[in-house]
Amino acid sequence: MKHRSNSGFTLIELMITVAIVAIVASVAMYNYSSYIRKANRTDARSALSETATSLEKCRSIYSVYNSGNCNVAFPVTSDKGYYSITSAFNANGTTFDLTATPVAGQPQTKDAECTTLTLANTGAQDATGSDTSVCW
């Protein structure tokens, strides 16, 4: 009588392998999503800086940030379209606060760490969420 050897995988071995792959994939997806959110914050920081620079040019010419002659029309959309930049000026137009808010449908709308980013004319940076240094 010949004894036949089994060279395949058992069901238990296959289920363990599937479970390990699922765990690794879930960790990878979480890290990837986190990386994407952090990378896209660069879009907000860049748009805030560019808008602030345009407002500073306006102030150097017209002595106020919110002159009708300036080429800044709010809301401003960031270069990649992930954020919308809005502004708040004081009554005489000598100070501003810019706020970058994620556009609906973007991964940033689920960003609990840094929901919005703000930049003031003084250079003060702030963010809603956790530690500002994480966001900036």
Question: What key attributes describe this structure?
Answer:
alpha+beta, 136 residues, five-stranded antiparallel sheet
Give structural notes.
The protein is an alpha+beta fold. It has one domain. It is 41% helix and 21% strand. It is rod-shaped and about 100 Å long. The model has no long low-confidence stretch (mean pLDDT 86).
Query: Number of helix segments?
Result: 2
| N-to-C span | 75 Å
The low-pLDDT segments are none
The gross shape turns out to be rod-shaped
Beta-strand fraction estimate: 15-25%
User: How many discrete domains?
Assistant: 1
Order of helices and strands: HEEEEEH
* Strands ordered across the widest β-sheet: 1-2-3-4-5
SS class: alpha+beta
Mean pLDDT: 86
Largest sheet: 5 strands, antiparallel
Radius of gyration of CA atoms, rounded to a whole number: 25 Å
Q: Tell how many strands the DSSP assignment holds.
A: 5
Residues in helix, %: 40-55%
